[in-house]
Structure formats: C-alpha cells, structure tokens
Amino acid sequence: MENVGKIRLHQNAWVVAKLQFTYLDGGKMIHTDGSPGVALGNSVTLDPSEFGVPEGASVSAYIFVVWGNDNHGKEIFTMVHGSPNIADYTLEGTTLGNTLTYNGMKQK
C-alpha cells in the first residue's frame, strides 16, 4: 500500500458532495466526517488525520453525495501524517449516476 498524507477531490459532478474517509480499526470499518459540501467546479484537499484517522491506518476516500448515491474509493492507502503524497480523485455525473475516478498519487 502506498503512503498518503492527504486526499484531494475535484468535484465535477452536478451534485453537492462531501469528502469523507473510511479506515480499518481492529478489523472494523470506521466512517469519519470530512469537508463541508463541495459544489460543482471546486476542489478540496484534506488530511484524514485531522478527522480522526490514526497514523498507520488503512484509509480510503468516501464521497457523500447530498441527496444522491454515495461513492467509495476502491484504493486503500496507509495514513502517514505529513507524507507529501496526495491521493487525487475526480467525481463526475449526477446525484443518482456519478463516478469516482482515481487520478493517481500526486506530490504536494
């Protein structure tokens, strides 16, 4: 698994979306809060550790779509606070038909 310090969402869908996170804790999946609503055409970059994801945890992006279908990143990363790596995602589509694309790992 690649280390990640932050996760970025480019919000190109006709929705209001929130970048959130899931992580494993003792085999149990934990869902954390994240950004406020991100409107079409905006981006947000967050450090999952600021939302309770512990150092060394296996973390994934979770996109909460207000009044629509949520989306979960398939990629799993190791949370390393301060890592220069940024997992970069793009959300496209509409409330009921959206897709989350992983654009690869970027650097700060």
Automatic annotation (TrEMBL):
<protein>
    <submittedName>
        <fullName>Uncharacterized protein</fullName>
    </submittedName>
</protein>
